[in-house]
Amino acid sequence: MAGKNKSRETWSPATQLVHEGALRSQFGETSEALFLNSGYVYSSAEEAEARFKGEADGYVYSRYANPTVSMFEQRMCALEGADAARGTASGMAAVAASLLCHLKAGDHIVAGRALFGSCLYIVEDFLPRCGITSTLVDGRDLAAWEDAVTPNTKAFFFETPTNPVLELVDIEAVAKIAKGCGALTVVDNVFATPLGQRPMELGADIVVYSATKHIDGQGRCLGGVVLGPQEFIDETLHTFLKHTGPSLSPFNAWVLLKGLETLPLRVARHCESAAKIADFLADNTAVAQVHYPGRADHPQYDLAKKQMAFGGPLVAFDVGKTKNDAFAVLNALELFSISNNLGDAKSLATHPATTTHQRLIPEARAELGIFDNTIRISVGIEDAGDLEADLDQALSTMK
């Protein structure tokens, strides 16, 4: 393959995301092959026995592993700097598996309170059904993390930046607290993207992604991935996935591989435009507040500069005073589509209080900075000037 005489260790992320992990069949295809099979044939009964015992390399069943899925996992490892990875059927499958494979009845988890609605359900509702207690803390408050630790705390879990108002958690400091009590640190890195933040370099043990978002980046399929140390992935996580079955389909893995090839180009455009739009919104009199880590008026701007490569592809802002004000702006948008998804090539806008965070009572949303007039936008790869013009005409309904 191209670049075969160059050490892989010197490849930049842009090169890794085109070439790393490729497994060519005997036909020498250029694009990664799509292996849609569920099972595998063995040359002998002895070979089948050896594979099932783990004494011989090779695939056994696509619920366990698949060549196309393996290529995606290896490429993600190269990007993230992780020892090993496992693909999952969705981002939520990745989150749930990363916690459930490790925790057991009697254990305790500390989590940042600013979580995506489904993640909050896992921590607050589902884990307790398994006898696993949880404590939610303000992720920005390091003392709160320390105070929440109990003798049976086994995991810390948080997202940063948070959904939807882009608060930050100090990954390095929280991971240090976790290591002090023997707990694993699990970071949901979706909003920053793997190009914008590297949690493992800051001390995190496990990183999870909804690959549905920027990794695919074109709204085509679901997928997730869990990355971490070899032993955790190959033994603890793999055993759980093998027997519970939230497998990443080979077709979706192939789509995600194609998405990874253009990830650096798309993320650069997303973030460049998001920074421009955040500045534009800050200057609009109809906007009460802008939430964007790349702006100096973000309360955690110094932390953003420390642990993020850029401000990110999402922007949140408060418009007017009421839900009706936010709805008026959303309904007036022409280029932005109303959708709860994010990380798409197309620009998307949503109203978190009535979609992603609607299960929270108003008081709980207010504690997280989510108000009835809060709008979250996922900036796409369209021309930034066109996006600003669309926002300007929509916001003019408030003037």
Report on the structure:
Helix 5 links the parallel strand 2 and strand 3. The protein is α/β, with parallel strands linked by helices. It is built from 14 helices and twelve strands. The termini are far apart. The model is unreliable at 1-6 (pLDDT under 50). 38% of the residues lie in helices and 15% in strands. The strands form two sheets. A seven-stranded mixed beta sheet has the order 1-7-6-5-4-2-3, sandwiched between helices. A five-stranded mixed beta sheet has the order 8-9-12-11-10. Helix 4 (91-100) packs parallel to helix 5 (117-129) and helix 10 packs parallel to helix 14 (384-395).
Secondary structure: elements and pairs:
Layout lengths: L12 H7 L25 H9 L13 H14 L3 E5 L2 H10 L7 E5 L4 H13 L3 E5 L4 H7 L4 E7 L11 H10 L3 E5 L17 E5 L13 E5 L1 H15 L5 H12 L1 H20 L4 E5 L9 H7 L6 E6 L3 H10 L4 E2 L9 E3 L11 H6 L6 E5 L5 H12 L4
Parallel strand pairs: 2-3, 2-4, 4-5, 5-6, 10-11
Antiparallel strand pairs: 1-7, 6-7, 8-9, 9-12, 11-12
Query: Could you tell me the number of beta strands?
Result: 12
Termini gap:
58 Å
Number of helices: 14
Query: Helix content range of the residues, please?
Result: 25-40%
Beta-strand proportion = 5-15%
Radius of gyration: 22 Å
Determine the mean pLDDT. 96
What overall geometry do the principal axes of the alpha carbons give?
globular
Low-confidence stretches: 1-6
By oligomeric state, this entry counts as: single chain
Spatial strand order of the main sheet: 1-7-6-5-4-2-3
Q: What is the chain-wise order of helices and strands?
A: HHHEHEHEHEHEEEHHHEHEHEEHEH
Structural class: alpha/beta
Largest sheet: 7 strands, mixed
